[in-house]
Amino acid sequence: MIMTQTAVSTASRDAEHEPLLEVDDLKVEFRVGHGVVSAVNGVSFTLEKGRTLAVVGESGSGKSVTAQAIMRLLQTPPARVTGGRILFQGRDLLQLSESAHRAVCGEHIAIVFQDALAALNPVYSIGFQLSEALRRRRHLSRSRARARAIELLQLVEVPNASQRVKDYPHQFSGGMRQRVMIAMALALEPEVLIADEPTTALDVTVQAQIMRLLGEIQAEREMGMILITHDLGVVAEVADEVNVMYAGRVVEQAPVEQIFARPGHPYTQALLRSIPRLDRKGHQLDAISGRPPELTRIPAGCPFHPRCDRAEDICRSDPAPALRELAGGRSAACQFAE
Ligand SMILES: Nc1ncnc2c1ncn2[C@@H]1O[C@H](COP(=O)(O)OP(=O)(O)OP(=O)(O)O)[C@@H](O)[C@H]1O
Ligand code: SF4
Ligand SMILES: [Mg+2]
User: Fold this and answer.
1) Of the ligands numbered here, which is closest to the C-alpha atom of 316?
2) What span, in angstroms and rounded, lies between the C-alpha atoms of 323 and 299?
3) Which InterPro entries match (predicted)?
């Protein structure tokens, strides 16, 4: 059958738009001495196959806690998931037993953190650590697992991989260690990769190299990637969609080009004004005035109202606005966004 251009692009778009992971109204809190920290307050989003969803927002907005809830990495107590669903291949991860969850995440969902040194075991060689999962989960022989470990190091562009596979974590530079952690995350060919500020601790040139590499691998393998980052330059380069988080909520959700061209939420607009831009050399940056709220006492109404230059009475009196659809595939949680 000959497919027309439209039919081909519709078919490939359908494949692309296959939902992989759906987070629905997720709520997470921490019980601490002085009260309850409401860290995630009804987060919903869908990650599609082959797409990169960037998650941005100031420190403490709930980006990592959302990722850790998906991976079940939160220590309970003090953490408690108090609501919502996390659907992967139609199954709610929150309902799975510990061992069933470990099996799903081990096979299908992987995470890369900022701190590779903490994630790698200092007493085993990189080769051993890479091989171990392959032997246990894929039942590869020792020599085949070793060969695959070398291939994985080559994939993440570690030079001289067949020698370096014998080395221990401390023998690698920060950037190389981060590549090793990415190799480990990719070992079992996950469908979903969560990267939580994977390059923040590295120098700018190495950051760019690793982000480019991650982007290439994600596209080649058609993985879904959740990329948590403070770097809006990286967002512009690699993301397809963007979630903007504030005080444990997603306050704006939009295709990447729309976020930059037509940000709908006053918080997104303020975030964009606070980043350096090459085309605005010499201009003063606008810091976002005020501070994010204490998550033990989030203000009533729109949580952003104390810092918002467009706030009106209704922002204080009505409940926190839910995400509302706007033109251009955008949604924003603001009374007045358009
Ligand atoms: N173990 C814990 N006990 C109490 N509060 C916690 C705990 N872990 C996280 N939090 C709180 O949850 C909130 C969300 O934290 P989270 O780590 O998700 O922020 P983030 O958006 O990833 O910030 P950053 O950009 O700094 O990494 C923060 O206020 C944080 O203090
Ligand atoms: S709802 Fe009101 S306070 Fe909240 S972001 Fe919109 S204008 Fe600002
Ligand atoms: Mg974080």
Assistant:
1) 2
2) 18
3) AAA+_ATPase, ABC_Ni/Peptide_Import, ABC_transporter-like_ATP-bd, ABC_transporter-like_CS, Oligopep_ABC_C, P-loop_NTPase
Residue 12 falls inside a structural domain:
no
Q: How far is the CA of 328 from the centre of ligand 2 (A)?
A: 20
Q: Which atom of ligand 2 is nearest to the CA of 266?
A: 5
- As given in the structure block, the two tokens for residue 137 are 């989960």
Ligand 1: list residues with CB < 6 Å: 30, 32, 37, 39, 57, 59-65, 78, 295
Q: Is residue 57 part of a domain?
A: no
User: What residue numbers bound the domain in which 305 lies?
Assistant: 262-338
User: Which atom of ligand 1 sits closest to the CA of residue 75?
Assistant: 1
List pLDDT tens digits, range 169-207. Answer: 999 998 889 889 999 988 888 999 999 988 877 788 888
pLDDT in tens, 48-58: 999 999 999 99
- pLDDT, one tens digit per residue, over 250-302 is 999 999 999 999 999 999 999 998 876 555 555 445 568 888 999 999 999 99
Ligand nearest to the CA of 249: 1
Report the domain count for the chain: 1
Q: Which atom of ligand 2 is nearest to the CA of 302?
A: 4
Q: Which two tokens stand for residue 33?
A: 């001495």
In a domain, 169, yes or no: no
